[in-house]
Write a structure and sequence with these properties.
With about 290 residues, the protein is mostly helical. It has helices at about 5-20, 20-25, 35-50, 55-70, 85-95, 105-115, 120-135, 150-160, 165-180, 195-200, 200-205, 255-260, 270-280; strands spanning about 30, 75-80, 215, 220-225. It contains 13 helices and four strands. It has a two-stranded antiparallel ribbon with strand order 1-2. Strands 3-4 form a two-stranded antiparallel ribbon. The radius of gyration is 21 Å and the shape is elongated.
């Protein structure tokens, strides 16, 4: 492919990813129990209870909280898992980088098939409602969108942290997603670059997903990311992979991947085209 064909294919695949992100990420939703976090909370409240025995009303309130947490220890809930089946991630990766036409790929075929399956969509909407209800009770997650193209990209990134060519190619998708999220042009891909930090205003910085900054304000400066939810590392827009002393495997798995890795980010006009077409009059499969 020539450079214009590569750009057109990148735009087409990103837009499909964004338009179908809910159904795509439904492949990453499973049941689980946050045992470690819940046990920690129970211990904390038991320690508090020791100092409140003389206050019957406070003591009873804390006992109820402890009992509620004990119930949660035996209650599975829906989560977007930080790690999923390798076959699912491979399907995501293939969609992003395969040399075959998008319409021939397994992820595309799966999504197009379930769109017309009323039983699947009914179960899907129930699952999403359960997931959203739980997330809305979590202060760290309630203001973070559940379904983003960014999260799909990060499933692929976590499985390929040692492949520099793949990471460089993936950054072209991340760069588009940054523009769609914030409507501000930048050069950053997954990693938030210092040059972008210096050039963007505070209101824009607060919108950015990045691995080092959760929020910026003029009083406190950089506020570090909160503790990770054990099932939802991707919800914090960062992962646990240390990139120090990594020996990169420079293996291009396709010609399209190599072309993406070597090209520049999309121009501002192309990113504006994508954002305008995605955000104007968009329809959702998921119920609000």
């Amino acid at each position: 492919m020539n450079i214009e064909q590569v750009k057109e294919e990148l735009i087409k695949r990103y837009m499909y990813l964004y338009q179908n992100k809910e159904l795509i990420l439904s492949l990453c939703i499973h049941c689980g129990i946050e045992k470690k976090e819940i046990v920690k909370k129970i211990k904390e409240f038991k320690n508090i209870l020791k100092n409140c025995k003389d206050d019957e009303m406070v003591s009873n309130t804390i006992k109820k909280i402890i009992n509620d947490y004990k119930v949660e220890l035996n209650t599975e809930k829906y989560y977007l898992m930080s790690n999923v089946n390798d076959n699912v991630v491979s399907m995501f990766e293939d969609f992003l980088f395969s040399d075959f036409d998008m319409e021939e790929l397994d992820l595309y075929k799966h999504i197009e098939a379930v769109k017309s399956d009323e039983k699947y969509l009914g179960a899907f909407n129930y699952l999403i409602e359960q997931l959203e209800d739980r997330r809305n009770c979590n202060a760290n997650l309630s203001n973070i969108p559940t379904f983003t193209a960014w999260k799909i990209l990060s499933y692929v990134r976590r499985k390929n942290s040692n492949n520099k060519i793949l990471l460089d190619a993936l950054d072209k998708y991340y760069n588009i997603d940054r523009f769609v999220i914030t409507n501000s042009d930048c050069i950053s891909g997954y990693k938030f670059l210092e040059s972008d930090y210096d050039n963007l205003i505070e209101d824009i910085l607060n919108k950015y997903p990045n691995s080092a900054i959760y929020k910026w304000n003029k009083y406190g400066g950089i506020v570090i990311l909160p503790n990770k939810n054990c099932f939802e590392e991707e919800d914090e827009y960062f992962d646990d992979i240390s990139e120090e002393n990594i020996t990169y495997d420079n293996n291009a798995k396709s010609c399209f991947m190599l072309d993406l890795a070597n090209m520049s980010n999309l121009d501002i006009e192309s990113k504006e085209y994508i954002r305008n077409n995605l955000l104007v009059g968009k329809k959702k499969l998921v119920k609000n």
